Write a sequence for this structure.
């Protein structure tokens, strides 16, 4: 293309008389301008159409086939509760060589015993070529671990808030829902689950060693449900946040100075974080 | 005249490329569009909203199950258990492939949710690994589940993968 353009430029210079010299100068200028713009713009134009942003080659240690040390940017609150809610912003996640989630947990923890119900968005390199989807999972007393697949996020679901709600609806059942997005939604029930929750967590979980990207996503309108079923906004920061590189989280709006539960923000260090 | 055409051509090419960049959001891919089309087709053949993610392509038009055990086996050959590969790196061994009701599948999974109505048909697949749990999401401080066997449950009509489960 470059050779052809120069030939055209040469011909326009060595074939006088067909156009006036003023018009010839104009054509030369336009041609040169077009050529330069094309050469400079091509890499920018094609970048990002089918692949995540650059900066995906950073290495980290967040678990592998044989190790279990996932990385987190999570905020926790403790104490007996019946439920929790948060609104998670949906800037797109890219899984790298494992998965990345933005999610909320309602759980029970005592010593080494853990039960929970969790829900949110996940990008998983083994599912749908890494496309982001809704999910929920539970670890039940005597019931094992289940991971449920929800709907893929549509293009119009990105850049919105998804409303995550997990709360007890009977002595051994918890309602799980994700609503508020234009297209994708999720509604189900964690059954045969007799846990008594004493922990709320929200934030980013990731595994693998390279390539994951998570831009800043906020967790707002953070609420908890008391054992008498009264909903309240979080008004304290809970435990100090858990952060393991490259996952990063911080309070962008402190719950102590907010009437709507504050805003926790997470991302993966690097692009967009 | 020839120069004019070349200039116009270049202008059109540049405009087209810029338009493509603006109209196609980052991260959208042709393969994802294909999957969404597949989901839409699946959805059209079901009596309930499409749940789960596309997995086994239906090969039977009527009845309570729209694919066969052979279809399941073909799928399993190319799709490892969703928790992660086996610890040995070898293919998982099939223990069970059964078309049963959602309620029966729930009972086999110690009362876990299957999302569908009790009488809806699902395909219950039990595999022997043992499996790595690379793709299990767990809260900070919790151990990843450990299990020699794992279960996948597919919607009997759409072939979609609804869930995977490992016992305690």
């Amino acid at each position: 293309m470059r050779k052809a353009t120069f030939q055209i430029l040469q011909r326009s210079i060595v074939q006088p008389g067909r156009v006036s010299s003023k018009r010839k100068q104009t054509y030369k200028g336009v041609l040169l301008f077009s050529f330069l713009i094309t050469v400079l713009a091509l890499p920018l134009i094609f970048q990002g159409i089918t692949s995540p942003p650059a900066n995906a080659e950073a290495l980290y240690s967040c678990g592998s086939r044989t190790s279990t040390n996932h990385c987190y940017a999570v905020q926790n609150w403790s104490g007996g509760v019946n439920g929790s809610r948060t609104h998670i912003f949906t800037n797109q996640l890219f899984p790298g060589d494992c998965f990345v989630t933005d999610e909320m947990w309602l759980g029970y923890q005592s010593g080494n015993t853990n039960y929970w119900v969790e829900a949110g968005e996940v990008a998983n390199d083994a599912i749908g070529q890494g496309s982001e989807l809704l999910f929920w999972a539970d670890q039940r007393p005597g019931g094992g671990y289940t991971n449920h697949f929800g709907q893929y996020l549509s293009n119009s679901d990105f850049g919105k808030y998804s409303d995550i709600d997990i709360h007890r609806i009977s002595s051994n059942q918890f309602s799980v829902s994700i609503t508020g997005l234009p297209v994708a939604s999720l509604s189900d029930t964690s059954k045969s689950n007799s846990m008594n929750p004493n922990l709320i967590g929200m934030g980013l979980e990731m595994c693998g060693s390279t390539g994951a990207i998570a831009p800043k996503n906020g967790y707002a309108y953070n609420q908890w449900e008391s054992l008498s079923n009264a909903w309240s906004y979080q008004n304290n920061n809970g435990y100090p946040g858990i952060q393991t590189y490259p996952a990063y989280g911080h309070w962008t709006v402190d719950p102590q100075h907010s009437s709507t539960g504050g805003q926790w923000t997470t991302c993966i260090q690097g692009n967009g974080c | 005249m020839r120069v004019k055409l070349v200039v116009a051509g270049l202008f059109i090419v540049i405009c087209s490329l810029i338009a493509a960049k603006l109209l196609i959001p980052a991260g959208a891919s042709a393969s994802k569009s294909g999957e969404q089309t597949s989901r839409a087709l699946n959805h059209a053949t079901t009596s309930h909203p499409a749940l789960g993610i596309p997995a086994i392509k239906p090969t039977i038009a009527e009845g309570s199950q729209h694919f066969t055990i052979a279809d399941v086996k073909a799928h399993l050959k190319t799709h490892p258990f969703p928790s992660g590969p086996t610890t040995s790196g070898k293919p998982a061994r099939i223990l069970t492939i059964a078309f049963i009701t959602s309620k029966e599948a729930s009972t086999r999974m110690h009362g876990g949710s299957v999302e569908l109505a009790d009488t809806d048909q699902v395909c219950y697949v039990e595999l022997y690994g043992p499996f790595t749990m690379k793709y299990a999401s767990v809260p900070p401080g919790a151990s990843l589940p450990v299990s020699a066997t794992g279960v996948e449950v597919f919607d009997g009509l759409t072939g979609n993968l609804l869930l995977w489960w490992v016992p305690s």
Notes: Residues 1-19, 36-50 of chain A have pLDDT under 50 and may be disordered. The two ends of chain A are 39 Å apart (CA to CA). The helical segments of chain A are 2-14, 21-46. The CA atoms of residues 168 and 174 of chain A lie 4 Å apart.
